[in-house]
């Protein structure tokens, strides 16, 4: 199969990975897997919702509803909606919409108003074409077998693949040998933003720009908490980083009234939770030892979320729509 098709079947088909496994069983995110990090991220999300006057929070690619559960504890006044391919709604969440998977969104997710829509590590699991230059420098679509064995596919031609080739010319520098074509992610984000009549879209994901596009692509797998080769047999998660510059450009073209702001996760948390990383006073240990330990844990979680070379480098794209 073409990689894009095999990827989709492996994650969202009848026996796909996400239909049989909870994400928390196989990999850590900013929401789960780092002690205390889910609560800190929820604080930042609630702060962003308050800043923009949002009364509703929608989590697309909600997994087991971990983020929503933390938000419910912090802000019970917010109306909470989860969206995922399997219904795992936790207590405190008002609504759960089952998604078809991949870039497709449920019909019920429409005409959202005064909502903060969070796409946290959603776009990186939206399948897209995987291409590679041959020995002559010509782009070919890669094919893959169920055991992960790859083979060169057909040559991309202007007659059949004009949009893909235009994307590669614009967003992939000459030194890159292999790439994931971000067009399906760009369109998925635009579809999501278009369902928002008034509010804010927040995209949080691994990402890169043209100047730092990895020469061998980023497609990889995760299973049981470990990174593994990407094998499209439904046994592992399959993920690839998001081309952030392409995403921003696409949204700006379709929504000229929307001004996207992109930052790292470290920068976003510093903005939304000012002073949160300050040292914990030692005298608190004597007066309130439980509060002292809780404050130390929160500070440690925040440090992990802001770590350079790790979660701190996640890209945060904030797109307000008024």
Quickly describe the structure.
It is globular and about 70 Å long.
Could you characterize what this model shows?
This protein has 322 residues and is α/β, with parallel strands linked by helices. 33% of the residues lie in helices and 24% in strands. It has one domain: Rossmann fold. It has helices at residues 3-12, 17-20, 37-51, 66-74, 158-171, 183-194, 244-254, 265-272, 283-287, 289-305, and strands at 56-60, 79-84, 95-98, 112-120, 130-133, 139-144, 150-155, 178-180, 196-205, 207-208, 220-223, 226-228, 237-239, 242-243, 261-264, 315-321. Strands 3-2-1-4-9-16-15 form a seven-stranded mixed beta sheet. It has a four-stranded antiparallel beta sheet with strand order 7-6-5-8, covered by helices on one side. The protein has a three-stranded antiparallel beta sheet with strand order 12-11-13. The model has no long low-confidence stretch (mean pLDDT 94).
End-to-end Cα distance: 42 Å
Q: SSE order, as H and E?
A: HHHEHEEEEEEHEHEEEEEEHEHHHE
Summing up helix and strand content along with how strands pair, one would put the structural category as: alpha/beta
Low-confidence stretches: none
The number of distinct β-strands equals: 16
What CATH architecture do you see?
Answer: 3-Layer(aba) Sandwich
The pLDDT mean sits at 94
**What is the CATH domain class?**
Alpha Beta
Query: What's the story with the biggest beta sheet?
Result: 7 strands, mixed
The largest beta-sheet arranges its strands as 3-2-1-4-9-16-15
Q: How many structural domains does the protein architecture include?
A: 1
CATH fold call = Rossmann fold
Q: How would you sum up the global shape?
A: globular
Strand content: 15-25%
Helix content: 25-40%
Radius of gyration: 20 Å
Number of helices: 10
